[in-house]
Amino acid sequence: MIFVTSWDDGHPLDERLGDLLDRFGLKASLFVPVRNSEGRPVMATDALRRLDGRFEIGSHTLDHVPLIGLTREECLHQVVEGKVGLEQQLGHAVPGFCYPRGKWNESVRDMVREAGCSYGRTVENFRLDIGADRFSQPVTMQVYPHNKQVLVRNYMRQGRLISRFRVFSAGLWSKDWLDFASRLFDADLGETGVVHVWGHSWEIEEQGLWHKLEDLFAMVASRQPRFCTIGELITDVFKS
Question: What class is the 2-237 domain?
Fold first, then answer.
């Protein structure tokens, strides 16, 4: 089994998250906008550099705005300048990308590729694989207390109902997201099954979930899966 975890928005609480990940020897991909149009703070350059190297840092646009509905020029500006701005802060290339709010289409996907990114991460839940397209990378579950109605709505909206049904069912009948994760780790997923957990550190704070997140990381570490960043997994699978 392979375990991947990724965290969006580059909130200053990502430093606390990083310390928790380090405690259990976990890898992670962190997606950071240069600034956040929603008003939430973004890590300063010195904090970002403290996390760089310990974790994979990826782009999350310039202003953390959904790319659907923008003109081609506006979309390219958000993607390119977000990547360039982050690279200037870190002093090296940043190949990974995450679509804000999971909003993307084929046109947006192509612009992300044109900008020189090596992959794009979506929020398509209930997947245990990385699919055939490096620019539409799915996830398995979000660290957030969604009610069952939200889970059903997400499942129906994102398609691939047959292939995602097994994981969706496990999530639907779990008492919470920690129980959901435990059920996945109890399943026989083989060497190539991918459990990809994602979230936002600011939501962990707002929901008072730090202790449960610690329990999740402890459980994952005890099962000893293969730990990967998204970039490492992409490189391994899409070698050509």
Answer: alpha beta
